[in-house]
Structures are given as structure tokens and as C-alpha cells.
Amino acid sequence: MAERQASADDPQAAGGAQEGSPDANGRASVLFVGDIVGGIGRRTLLDSLPVLRERYEPTFVIANGENVAGGLGITPKLADELIAAGIDVITLGNHTYHRREVYAYLDAQPRILRPVNFLRSQPGHGACTVERDGVRLGVVSVSGNLYLRAGRSAFTEIESALGELGAAAHIVVDMHAEATSEKVAMGWHLDGRVTAVVGTHTHVPTADARVLPGGTAYITDVGMTGPRGGVIGVKREQAIESLLTQMPVRFETSQEDPWLMAVLIRCSRPLRADSIEQVLMPRPPAQEGTG
Ligand SMILES: [Fe+2]
Ligand SMILES: [Fe+2]
User: Fold this and answer.
1) pLDDT reported for residue 24
2) Residue 94: nearest ligand to its CA?
3) What number of other Cβ atoms are within 10 A of residue 195's Cβ?
């Protein structure tokens, strides 16, 4: 199945913004965290969350988790840990199926999304809705088609995904793509129809965060939550050796200079953003040395 609506037995996902409730006007904020890389990225996120919650009071937290299991893929245990820490929705990408043990979990857990434009026969679903503080949020994961394996077109499948999502005060689309052109185009394509289009996958944050004229918050890439001391997460000496020798090299996650990279999207009316702000911060110093 490609989409997953919140089930009635999910207490956090039941209900929706009621007319006359404090948040029926769409007031909300969303913290979107870029690709979590390895254990170091996961610990950086978990250590940063209390600081971020106090500073920004986000209604929702979404995180891309495609690199959380040792740099490639995700496991049920790690996904459960992120959800238990208050991550409302986990998005994935081209590394979705690296760990076989997650396949059944992708079908069973509504809050984890693989790109909606993968083949329908592939495990998992690409969209969901969650609810918090009387606000219903829709999240869609979609993969670019340039230099990435996605069985169907991002631009045609996003339409059916949005159509099937149902009523939501806000919609955030994670456009997981290599090419900046595809991500910029998706931002314009959805401008005025969704709250935000945020790019992931390159692990490098871009300097183009803005609210587009139609009211959709946009950034080409949020960046990663992981070690800046490596090469997009990999130990730099290994990445350089691979490029230098053109021979196979075993990649390990760098442990150097972990940072959290995210964006905060603030909203005061349905399906529109007031602002998008980059959040780029080193792992809180007091927590360093805890693993
Ligand atoms: Fe990726
Ligand atoms: Fe990634």
C-alpha cells in the first residue's frame, strides 16, 4: 500500500483540527531534521532535542532516518527509539531497504515513510497523517528520479499522494533527491498547495531557505545530523582513499564534529508557512563523551 492514514486505534493520530478549537486556524510549527547518520547522529539528535524543544517549542518533529543504522538504512529498534523520543514521523530515501529486518515494520508502522513513488509492490507506504495539539499534519516522502532508483515519477505520484492524504491543516513533503534542479522544481510545483517542501539526501545544507510566493516554505537541502568531520558522514580518509585508488573501500561513519542540521517552519494559517529558519548547531557540549 502506498499511503497510510492514521488509524483509529492510534490515540495520537485520532481526531483532527476541530472548527473553533485553538488550532483550527493552522497555528503550528514543524522542526524537520536532516538525515540522521549513524549512532553519532542519533545521539546528537537525542541530546539536542531537549534544547530544541525548549528553544522552539515545535508542535511536530519530523526526521529523515535513512542513514541511522550504521550509516545505511534503519532497523525497527532504531525507529522505535526515535518514535519513543517524540519524533512524530520518520522519512526515508534511497537507503530504505538496506536492512531486511525493517521490511515488515515499514508495512506495520504508520509513522515511517519510504518514498511514495517507489513501486507499489515494495514494502512500506509513502504518506501519513499525525495529530498533535489539535493540529493534523500530513507528511509525504518522495524520491527524485535523477541518479536515484525510484520506480515511478516524483512529479506524477506526488499528485495522487496529496489527493489520497485527506484533510490536514499542514502538509510537509520530504523531497529526497540528488539533483538540485528536481528539488527546486518540486518546490515551485507545490507552491501554494502544501506547507513545506524540504530537500534531503545530499547531507549538505543549502543557503536557499525561503517562503515561496504562494506560501510554501522551501529549502533545497536541510543537511544531515551527523559528523561534519567526514565526507557526507563517512570517515574522510576512507572516502579519499576510495576516490584516489578507485578500489573498493569499507566505509565507516566518522565520529568527528557532530552537528544537528534542521529547519524550523512556523505557520499561522492552514497549508501556508510564515517562515523557515535553518537550525545548524553542534552536539550540545555537556553531552559529549557519553558515547
Ligand atoms: Fe539518500
Ligand atoms: Fe542520506
Assistant:
1) 60
2) 1
3) 27
Read off the C-alpha cell for 154.
Answer: 516524483
**What is the per-residue pLDDT for 215?**
98
Residue 167 DSSP class? -
Decide if 201 is catalytic: no
Per-10-residue mean pLDDT for the chain, 291 residues long?
A: 42 39 76 98 97 97 97 97 98 98 98 98 98 95 97 97 94 98 98 98 98 98 98 97 97 97 97 98 73 50
The domain ranges of the chain are: 4-8+23-283
What are the residue ranges of helices labelled H in the chain? 38-56, 76-84, 103-108, 154-165, 180-190, 236-245
Domain 4-8+23-283 indexed as CATH 3.60.21.10: yes
Q: How far does the centroid of ligand 2 lie from the alpha carbon of residue 12, in Å?
A: 28
Under 8 Å between Cβ of 271 and 195: yes
- Scanning the structure block, which residue is given the C-alpha cell 540528488? 178
Q: Does the pTM exceed 0.85?
A: yes
- Single-letter code of the amino acid located at 195: T
Q: Give me the amino acid identity at 218.
A: Y
**In angstroms, what is the span from residue 197 Cα to ligand 2's centroid?**
17
Report the distance separating Cα 16 and Cα 130, nearest Å: 9
Choosing from 95, 176, 189, 203, which is the catalytic residue?
A: 95
Distance in Å, CA 93 to ligand 2 centroid: 7
| Ligand 1 centroid distance, CA of 11 (Å) | 31
